[in-house]
Amino acid sequence: MWLIFAYRGIEISSYPAIQKHLKKYRDSLGKRTGEQKWYELQAALGDSKRFTQTKLVCPNLYNHQTFAVETDGFYCGHTCYLIPTEETWLCGVLNSRVVEWFYSQVSDQLTGDKLRAISGYMQQIPIPDITSTQKELIGKIVDYLIYLQKQPTTNSKDLAYARDYVMLKYFERIIDGLVYESYLSEELHQGGKHFFEPLSDEQLPQPEEIQGDKMSAFRDIFEHLYEKTHPIRKNLFFLDSLKSIRIIEGKA
Q: CA-to-CA distance for 37 and 78, rounded, in angstroms?
């Protein structure tokens, strides 16, 4: 139920119950290498800031890119990786199909479909050189997804709310389109595929700007963007007409 963070430099005498508990393991704790005292971890208090700040987190093993934005200051163990950053638009990029495909090409894979998050491979992911406006647009859709994933109707098995799950997956697909354009803009534009421009023209609100029933507002936004004649819907539908996209999505 509790995690003891006995950081390097802690005044352990200020926590007599913890000190008493740790004394039961003094012999084994004292055998650890490093300059820390027997009851201390190697990490200093300052090292904890990477946990308490806004960050992106992902599990050590996963079937698909599974990054999430974490803002509550949770600590995670060695089965979780984190990127301390407030650039939440990166979550959309890192969860995209194109980045998952790239990562699967450069990293050592396990048997089956499992991917393993390793810093040395993660650092090889090229971050697209896009404008602040484009970053803001990706970040806005990421915020939409964060809100929607917290709503009970989004993952409900009640068929009355099945459309909410479709909405969630559609916004995820919109991020794929935006990220494809970030990396492969020349090829997409030659094929007449644009996502940033038509989405920017919509002047979508930030979640915190929506007054009243947010879910109703998101449903209206979704239904508008999901219309068959909307350029976002058409460009997503015909996205795999491009050979590079078919390769990335395993359709070639």
A: 22
Q: Residues 193, 186: contact at Cβ < 8 Å?
A: no
∠143-89-72 over CA atoms, to 5°?
Answer: 60
pLDDT tens, the chain, 252 aa long? 888 889 899 999 999 999 999 999 999 999 988 889 999 998 888 877 888 889 999 998 888 888 999 999 888 877 888 899 999 999 999 999 999 999 988 887 655 667 888 888 889 999 999 999 999 999 999 999 999 999 999 989 899 999 999 999 999 999 999 999 999 999 999 999 999 999 999 999 999 999 999 999 999 999 999 999 999 999 999 999 999 999 999 987
How many whole angstroms separate alpha carbon 12 and alpha carbon 147? 41
C-alpha neighbours within 13 Å on the C-beta side of residue 248: 21
CA distance 157 to 132: 38
Three-class secondary structure of residue 57 per DSSP: strand
> How much is the pTM?
0.85
Residue 84's nearest CA partner among 52, 106, 112, 113 is 52
Q: Which long-range contacts (CB under 8 A, 24 or more apart) does 126-131 make?
A: 126/102, 126/183, 127/90, 127/93, 128/93, 128/179, 128/182, 128/183, 130/182
3-state secondary structure of 115: strand
Q: Is residue 195 within 8 Å of residue 178, measured between CB atoms?
A: yes
Pairing state between β 80-84 and 115-116: unpaired
DSSP for residue 8: B
